[in-house]
Every structure is written in structure tokens, then in C-alpha cells.
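Troubleshooting log. The previous structure file for this entry was overwritten by mistake, so regenerating from the original sequence record. Sequence copied from the archived sheet and checked twice against the printout by T.R.
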Amino acid sequence: MKKILTTLVIMLGVYSLAQAQNGKTEFGVGIGYNSSYVSAGNSYQNTDAIGGFNVAVSVDHYFSDAWSVKIKPTYDQKGWANGFLDLGTKQIDNVDFKLTYITVPITANWHFGRTRNWYLDFGPYVGFLTSATESYTGSDMKSSFSSTDGGLALGIGVKIPVSDKLKLYFEYDGQGGVVNVFQSGSTVLNTRGAINVGINF
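Regenerated output below.
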């Protein structure tokens, strides 16, 4: 909880600073389809992907027509499919693991194209674990996982004006974790891609 409150205070500070500068600010809401999996650190071994969804709000402050900074708190479903569960006496295969996070990317946005409606964003993200379950017994496994996730976010999208103040956006964004998803043991990293749609105003 302290980490979440700290992040919210930082977000408020960044937003207040942005408001004090010259430039416009856009707000947004959106939803998307996630595909996520985990990979073993320092190897090419990946699990099967699992589907999920995300719901996001955003604040995007422009410093020029080409550059802005965006903060995008997101309810994010991650995890992986067809994993295994070690019960001590036996190993259960074909188990799905579902993790949910509140993820907060803070990205620099480069707006390009003739009308600057296309954008590329990149920057760090931090995620706070809210739940972790497995499909075999449905048990809560949150205590086995790290309470935070973090890594790099990258996305590309386009905004389509529908009125003077309203824009419809479509985007693809990806996240690559650099923090072990488990409390201990071998390093396992989150990877997530999403196709999103929403509105900016």
C-alpha cells in the first residue's frame, strides 16, 4: 500500500509540474486485449501465452507538437499458460497462472506524421501485484510472487480526431520485465503485449 501511495504522490507531482509548463494536456481512457507469458532469465525459454485484458486511464502532457510525457495507470492481467505446479509429492502439468497488476508506465511520446497523429512511446514502468492464482486448485498464490514488477514499455499508435476535442486512438504496446516475478528462486520475467482502443479528450 505504501508503494502505491508513493507512486500516486509522484504521479500527482509530475502532473502538477506539467500543468505549470506551457503546453496542452490530454486525458484518456481505454481498454485492451493482453497476451502475456514469462521467460527464464538469461535464456530463450518461454512459456505459452495467456490472454487477458487491461483498462487504463492516462494523462499526456505536450511540451511541443512532437513531444509529450504520458502517465498511464493500468489494471493489467498477466501470467502464462500450460505451466506446472509442484505439490511436493507430484508435479501437475497444464496449469494456467493468472497475475493481475496495477501497472504505471511513464513514457516519452514522439508524435510524427504530417498531422502528428501517429505516436511512438517508450519508457519505464512499475507494476504492483494485486492477485495471483493458479487454475488447478484456484488457490491464492500471491505470497509466492514478488509484490512489484518493473521494466520497459514501448508502444506505437494513431489518434483519429472525431471532433475538436475528442480523438479515438488505436495502439499496440508491449512490456518487458526486468524484475523476477517470484519471491525467490530462478529469475523469471514478465512479457506482455496488448492491442488497445480508447478515447483522448
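The helical segments are 2-20. Archived copy saved in two places this time.
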